[in-house]
Amino acid sequence: MRRQRAFTYLGLLFVIAFIGLLMASAGQVWHLAAQRDRETELLFVGQQFSAALASYRAATPGDPKRLPRRLEDLVEDRRGPVIRRHLRKIFADPMTGSREWGLDRNGDQIVAVYSLANGKPIRQANFPPGLESLAKARSYREWRFSADDAGEAAAPTGKPSAPARIDKQNQE
C-alpha cells in the first residue's frame, strides 16, 4: 500500500511538471504574438506620424517648407487663420506604452519620430511599401518615421534629441 502511494505521488509530480512545461511554452507563444501585434501597431502609428509630418510640411505657407518644432504642432497647427489637425492625437508608443517618443531634429524642426524601445524587432522582412529600409534595423529605436515620402523610414538628418514629453492634457 505504501508503495502504491509513492508511485501515485511520483506520477502526480510528473503530471504537474509536464503541465508546468506546457504553460511555459504557451507563455512564450503568447509573448511573441503580443510583440508581433505591438510591432504592427508601431508601424501603423509610425505611418500616421509620417503622413502628419508630410502634411505639416506641405501646409507651410510660402518657402522654405518647415517641419514642426513640437509634436503638439501636428495636433493643432495654428500657423493660419484656421487650426489644422495633421494628426488626430499624439499616440502612445505601443512598444513602451508611454507617450514619449524619440525625435530626430534638424535645427529646431522634427524630421523623424522613433520608438524609445530597445528590443530587437521580430519582423525582419515583408514591410509595407516605402518602409523596406526597416528590415535592416537591429532595434526599435532604428525604426525611423519621417516626412520623406509620407511613411518611408529615412535615415535621420539631424541628431537625436531628448524624448518628447507630453502632459496629461494633450494625451487625447
Terminal-residue CA separation: 68 Å
The strands making up the biggest β-sheet line up spatially as 1-2-3
Taken from the alpha-carbon principal axes, the silhouette is elongated
For the largest beta-sheet, the strand count, sense and barrel status come to: 3 strands, antiparallel
Question: How many structurally independent domains?
Answer: 1
How do the helices and strands follow one another from N- to C-terminus?
A: HHEEE
Bin the strand percentage.
5-15%
Mean pLDDT, to the nearest integer, reads 83
Low-pLDDT ranges = 151-161, 167-172
Structural class based on helices, strands and sheet pairing:
mainly alpha
Helical stretch count? 2
Helical fraction equals 25-40%
Number of strands: 3
What do you see in this structure?
By secondary structure, the protein is mainly α. It has one domain. It is 35% helix and 8% strand. The protein is built from two helices and three strands; from the N terminus they run H-H-E-E-E. Strands 1-2-3 form a three-stranded antiparallel sheet, covered by helices on one side. A hairpin with a 2-residue loop joins strand 1 and strand 2 (109-114).
